[in-house]
Amino acid sequence: PVPNDPQLIEFVIKELKKGAMPADVAYEVCRRAGVQWPEAEAFVRPFAQERQRQRRQKPKPIVGLLVFIGIALVVGVTGVVVLKTSLERRSVAPLIYEAVTPTDSPFKSDRFYRERWVEAGQTILVNYDVSMRSGHLNLYVSEKWSQSDTKGLYDMSREDQLFTLTKDGRGQLKYPVTDTGWYGLRVFMTDFTGRCEVAWEVR
């Protein structure tokens, strides 16, 4: 279990207040406390739920809400189309990283994240090509928002854990999508030296 460390609790609360994703915070808890993903995710979950509850209860000025609704009605459709097109184009570009000295995880680094809209019934294919001299890589697909509003970490190794690469090789991971929404691919690396190339596509 995750130790009841005041400094660790303070870190979790601080990161969530800054807007960090719960999955990002849970990953960092794994590293700092030396625990497995399920324990770290369970440790972070109540803090994330409390943060969401506080944000929902925060009073919002009526005028600001009306202005927001008006703007959304005017530019909503155009914005969604532009954003979707931009993200889909961006998702085509592979994530490439090279390191000659051991490096820590690029925590919350935009370079190692891809996101796009995926329809239920489609499959996310993650292709990887890794030349690794030390360290390891973690890959996961996360659901950012769906029509049923169920958010969380989705397992690509079907064992409720991050898919971890610890040696050279290339291959493909498959994740069948059952819930339409925004999905993201994220790559973490720890003490990594070598070269990795990760790309994804949706079929």
Summarize it.
Helices cover 37% and strands 37% of the residues.
Could you explain how this protein is built, in words?
This protein has about 200 residues and is an alpha+beta fold. Helices cover about 35% and strands about 35% of the residues. The protein is built from four helices and seven strands; from the N terminus they run H-H-H-H-E-E-E-E-E-E-E. It has helices at about 5-15, 20-35, 35-55, 60-90; strands spanning about 95-105, 115-120, 125-145, 150-155, 165, 170-175, 180-200. Strands 1, 2, 3, 4, 5, 6 and 7 form a seven-stranded antiparallel sheet that branches. Strand 3 (about 125-145) and strand 4 form a beta hairpin. Helix 1 crosses helix 3 (about 35-55) and helix 2 (about 20-35) crosses helix 3. It is globular. Residues about 150-160 have low confidence and may be disordered.
Output the structural class: alpha+beta
**SS element count, helices:** 4
Q: Classify the beta-strand content into a percent band.
A: 35-45%
N- to C-terminal distance: 39 Å
The dominant shape is globular
Order of helices and strands: HHHHEEEEEEE
Identify low-pLDDT runs: 150-161
- What is the gyration radius calculated from CA atoms? 19 Å
Give a quick account of the main beta sheet: strands, pairing sense, barrel closure.
Answer: 7 strands, antiparallel
What is the averaged pLDDT score?
76
* Helix share, percent: 25-40%
What is the β-strand count? 7
